[in-house]
Amino acid sequence: MSHREGRIVHDADSHIIEGRGWLESYASDYVRKNLDQGVFNLDMPELDPLMDAAAKRLAGDDPELTEAMKSDIFAHPGKRNMWSAYGAVEKGERSDALKVMGISSQLVFPSVGAARFSRSKDMEVVYGGCDALNRGMADFCADDLGLKSVGFLSLRDPDRAQTSLDLALELGINAIWIPSDAQEGRAPSHIAYDPLWARMEEAGVPVTLHIGSGQNMPSVYMNTGVERVLEGNLGNIETTRPKDLPVIHHSIERWLTCMIYDGVLERFPNLKVGIIEPGANWVPASLMNLDMGVSLLGKFDQGLKKLTLKPSQYFQRQIRVAPLHTEDTGWILRNVGQDILMFNTDYPHPEGGKDPFGDYERSLDALDATSEELDRFYSKNYEDYLGLEATA
User: Fold this and answer.
1) How confident is the model at residue 140 (pLDDT cuts 50, 70, 90)?
2) For the domain that residue 284 is a member of, what is the CATH number?
3) Is residue 5 part of a domain?
4) Is the pLDDT of residue 79 over 90?
5) pLDDT, tens digit, for every residue of 254-303?
6) Does some domain include residue 286?
7) What order do you get walking across the sheet with 207-210 strand by strand?
8) The pTM is what?
9) Is residue 73 part of a domain?
10) Structural domain of residue 299, as residue ranges?
11) pLDDT digit string (tens) for 329-369?
12) Counted domains in the chain
């Protein structure tokens, strides 16, 4: 029997696909004129056929294609065409897509918008870009309680970040995506950020780290003295390279170590953290390593003596992780417990696969996951993460 039958399902990872002019439409004149191209050039002429096809279908000129996409929403080639995927750019369609998938609610991330301002040398652009992106994400999700908006917050200037966070919360943003790397010479656990954690904890809005939050494989490790050609998929905005994948969680682990060892999760016990799309194979080892760091070296660090829980217990209490459908989720579940993992589709990014439901079901069935474990995976952990009222 399908895990979906008789069970509430929430999706911890999905995206909008920003089109040309989308971010600009929510930005001030100054920010609009100073946005970067980002890691993916939306103006490249090679994208014209994809954009035109999407516009034609959204205008109602290709109803047969729309119905075909709805009938096979994950596997249809339209999913790999990104902008033309069902619900990728239009919020009414996205609400309908949730019904087709049988999903009650879904976290919705941006795709390429943050890269257009987050590295700017101009702080007016950085924080004006944050505000523009957050307006856009709030707008996309405004008409459907099942669409949970994820905003972006730069930590490069803690004071400006506070103002930008206040606006995001006023807009109704449901989760805040932040970078995982150290910013402007400050550790992620620097006390200058405590007002931000306090504000998010008070609002019941979690912190989120997503793939792209931090540095992947440093570029120097790509220099082998031999030219290596990687062929890309024009319609795929994912920039992860093969060498990145085995180490993509390293920045995340550094962030978590700081947040736990330096007492941030001790000081803010109701602040929830989501780890989305760097996978979860690394989590069992991370839990053991976090505890080992304290047990072996804690006597040398007076700050660690102030912790009232083992590091792994903070993780269990406050951190939720979305595994990849390609991983052995059942194995991870058995090694981390039932309170951490969350179902996700990554829709409409192609990395989410043609059959995310089936991939997770096969892995979880192989270890005979209990009904309680399945409920935690498909709904309860997500509800705990977002502070939602528990479903029956």
Assistant:
1) very high
2) 3.20.20.140
3) no
4) no
5) 999 999 999 999 999 999 999 999 899 999 999 999 999 999 988 888 88
6) yes
7) 10-15, 105-109, 147-152, 175-177, 207-210, 273-276, 319-322
8) 0.92
9) no
10) 10-43+89-221+236-386
11) 999 999 999 999 999 999 998 888 889 999 999 999 999 99
12) 1
Q: What is the pLDDT of residues 91-132, one digit of tens each?
A: 999 999 999 999 999 999 999 889 999 999 999 999 999 999
- Residue 149: pLDDT band (50, 70, 90) is very high
Burial class (CB in 10 A: 0-12, 13-18, 19+), 390: exposed
> Does the residue 326 lie in any domain?
yes
- Give the C-alpha separation, 67 to 96, whole Å: 12
Whether the bond between 348 and the residue before it is cis, its omega within 30 degrees of 0, is: yes
**C-alpha closest to that of 314 among 293, 299, 342:** 293
* DSSP sequence for 198-265: HHHHHHT--EEEETTSS--S-GGGG--SS-------TT------TTTGGGTTHHHHHHHHHHHHTTHH
In one-letter notation, the amino acid at residue 69 is M
One-letter amino acid for residue 229 of the chain:
V
pLDDT exceeds 60 at position 246: yes
d(C-alpha 149, C-alpha 142), whole Å: 8
End-to-end alpha-carbon separation of the chain, Å? Answer: 20
Helix axes 123-141, 91-101, angle to 10 degrees: 60
Which of 309, 273, 256, 124 has its CA nearest to residue 201?
273
Both tokens of 204, joined, read 């019941």
Radius of gyration (C-alpha) of the chain in whole angstroms: 21
State how beta strands 105-109 and 273-276 pair: unpaired
- Rounded CA-CA distance 34/44 in Å is 18
